[in-house]
Automatic annotation (TrEMBL):
This is Riboflavin synthase. The keyword Transferase applies. PANTHER family: RIBOFLAVIN SYNTHASE, RIBOFLAVIN SYNTHASE ALPHA CHAIN. It catalyses: 2 6,7-dimethyl-8-(1-D-ribityl)lumazine + H(+) = 5-amino-6-(D-ribitylamino)uracil + riboflavin. Catalyzes the dismutation of two molecules of 6,7-dimethyl-8-ribityllumazine, resulting in the formation of riboflavin and 5-amino-6-(D-ribitylamino)uracil. Residues 1-96, 97-194 form the Lumazine-binding domain. Pathway: Cofactor biosynthesis; riboflavin biosynthesis; riboflavin from 2-hydroxy-3-oxobutyl phosphate and 5-amino-6-(D-ribitylamino)uracil: step 2/2. It comes from Chengkuizengella marina. InterPro entries: ATP_synth_asu-like_sf, Lumazine-bd, Lumazine-bd_dom, Riboflavin_synthase-like_b-brl. One of its GO terms (molecular function) is riboflavin synthase activity. The keyword Iron does not apply. GO terms for biological process: riboflavin biosynthetic process. Its EC number is 2.5.1.9.
Length: 219
């Protein structure tokens, strides 16, 4: 589990791509302060596993499902990436619950500077993600925990403060660029719970018959 608070910006050292998978090595300092084989680290919001490391970098595999569903396939040597280690049990919970499981890739439709923030408007490529999205709710973009400002039928907006812009790769994201999107897990659970109850109630009402009422002593 992650919190969406980026710890460091890393740089892709080298990358070995196949048709639907790849191996990436990332230059880092902070991640290497306490790293072990098998550790989970979120790369632009994607939970990956450390398979190798040395004094200056660590290596991770990107499997086909991740390759297809995230923007990691767009990375190349020299690309900068957001990094966050999995949350420790004694850590402060600074953002919101982030799993590192991407729901959609989003395209930046507009980037507008305001007095002390930058407003990003995003269009997801998976429109069914909107069932989990509400204004003032939480959303994860490239691993960053953010608050939704506006939500329309096809886009949503987030407002980025200067600190977040400076400490993440959002500083280099502009109109047309892509972002990994993860909806709030609480929204997913609530949606599943409510729709599960509706389905159960529907099944119960569809199963009501004279025979059922007689068997259960109602008539």
């Amino acid at each position: 589990m992650f919190t969406g608070i980026i710890e460091e910006i890393g740089t892709i050292k080298n990358i070995s791509k196949q048709s639907q998978s790849m191996i990436i090595s990332i230059n880092s300092k902070k991640m290497l302060e306490d790293i072990h084989l098998g550790d989970s680290i979120a790369i632009n919001g994607v939970c990956l596993t450390v398979t190798q490391y040395d004094q200056s970098s660590f290596t991770m595999d990107v499997m086909p499902e991740t390759f297809r569903k995230t923007n990691l396939s767009q990375l190349s040597a020299g690309s900068r990436v957001n990094l966050e280690r999995a949350m420790a049990a004694n850590s402060r919970f600074g953002g919101h619950i982030v799993q590192g499981h991407v729901d959609s890739i989003g395209v930046i439709k507009n980037r507008e500077s305001e007095e002390n923030s930058v407003m990003f408007t995003i269009e997801p490529n998976q429109q069914d993600i909107f069932k989990y999205i509400i204004p003032q709710g939480s959303i994860t973009l490239d691993g960053i925990s953010l608050t939704l400002v506006n939500v329309t039928n096809s886009t949503f907006s987030v407002s980025i403060i200067p600190h977040t812009l400076e400490q993440t790769i959002l500083q280099q994201k502009f109109t047309g660029d892509t972002l990994n999107i993860e909806a709030d897990i609480l929204g997913k659970y609530i949606h599943h719970l409510l729709n599960g109850n509706k389905q159960q109630n529907s099944e119960r009402s569809n199963n009501i018959s004279k025979q059922m009422l007689m068997e259960n002593g109602f008539i």
